[in-house]
Design a protein that fits this description.
- Pathway: Carbohydrate biosynthesis; dTDP-L-rhamnose biosynthesis.
- It is an enzyme of class 1 (oxidoreductase).
- One of its GO terms (molecular function) is dTDP-4-dehydrorhamnose reductase activity.
- The protein is an alpha/beta fold.
- It has a domain of 200 residues: 3-Layer(aba) Sandwich (Rossmann fold).
- 40% of the residues lie in helices and 14% in strands.
- It has 10 helices and 12 strands.
- Strand 4, helix 5 and strand 5 form a beta-alpha-beta unit.
């Protein structure tokens, strides 16, 4: 069978960049940024899609800053719910596959230590509510679509928490990070590999699926792990120790954050038939590639 033609939305975001880089060598890939498909103008979306041929749509676009969503809820709803529904309707009508990326922020962060795909959702901020609305709209419009929930992404294309902590540690040894917010750091590179397997080996899988590495972390332990690895790689960080603080102390945040959103990846592991590596191993690989390129 010929390789599927892949359309990637959100081409300038970290995940979109990673998906484009992963698939481009072996697949016919088109990637669009907001310049090509403006989520602020939903009336143009269907016509734009209709002018392009593709077999799989990977929707990594949206409004992802919780604080920005809190300030601009109408725009967040357009980007995270209205446009995904239009995309899903177009894909369903054309008989093409849609994989839509969502978030661990659809969960409340209380009442469970581990969240499964079937667990009740109860988001506590505008970002989570609009992403949940997008999940529901996509699956109503295209029952064959796949909603891929991800958490705490990191990779080479956009600075993430470990990158910013290392940059700060190059300047000062006085660092702090939240210790009571817990989830699963997840590698862009690993997500790309999983998505390829789901496209090639599981063309009919639909519904909700958690895509995350194994293990758990806080922003604090994630930061200390990154700094420890960086020090071992002889990056001149001034410390590998980080002062733990509580999320409630970050009064500058506009949007409330869920405290505990560790997602189970057991369904993904069963589908792919192998262990899902620990986030620490994925982080180490990323930092080695960044600071000791071959």
């Amino acid at each position: 069978m010929p390789s599927p033609r892949i359309l990637i939305l959100g081409a300038t975001g970290g995940l979109g960049c990673a998906l484009r880089r992963h698939f481009a060598p072996e697949y016919e890939v088109t990637s669009w940024s907001r310049a090509e498909l403006d989520f602020g103008r939903p009336d143009t979306v269907a016509a734009t899609l209709a002018a392009h041929d593709f077999d799989v749509l990977l929707n990594a676009a949206g409004m992802t800053s919780p604080d920005a969503c809190e300030v601009q809820p109408e725009l967040a709803f357009l980007a995270n719910a209205v446009v995904p529904q239009i995309l899903a309707e177009c894909c369903h009508e054309r008989g093409v596959r849609m994989i839509h990326f969502s978030t661990d922020y659809v969960f409340s962060g209380t009442g469970r230590d581990l969240w499964f795909e079937s667990d009740e959702t109860a988001p506590i901020n505008v970002y989570g509510r609009t992403k949940l609305a997008g999940e529901q709209a996509v699956l109503r419009a295209a029952p064959g679509a796949l909603v891929a929930r991800v958490s705490w992404l990191f990779g080479p294309d956009k600075p993430s928490h470990p990158d910013s902590m290392i940059q700060k540690a190059l300047q000062t040894g006085d660092l702090s990070a939240v210790a009571d917010k817990i989830s699963v750091p997840t590698s862009h590179a690993d997500i790309c590999g999983w998505i390829e397997q789901l496209i090639v080996r599981h063309p009919t899988i639909s519904g909700v699926l958690h895509l995350c590495n194994s293990g758990v972390a806080s922003w604090h332990s994630w930061a200390e792990a990154a700094l420890t690895i960086a020090a071992r790689l002889e990056v001149p960080v001034k410390t590998s120790r980080v002062q733990p603080v509580e999320l409630a102390s970050l009064t500058q945040l506009r949007a409330p954050r869920p405290l505990l959103t560790v997602m189970s990846n057991s369904k993904l592991q069963n589908l792919l038939g192998g262990e899902i590596r620990h986030w620490h191993d994925a982080l180490e690989e990323y930092l080695v590639q960044k600071y000791q390129p071959q």
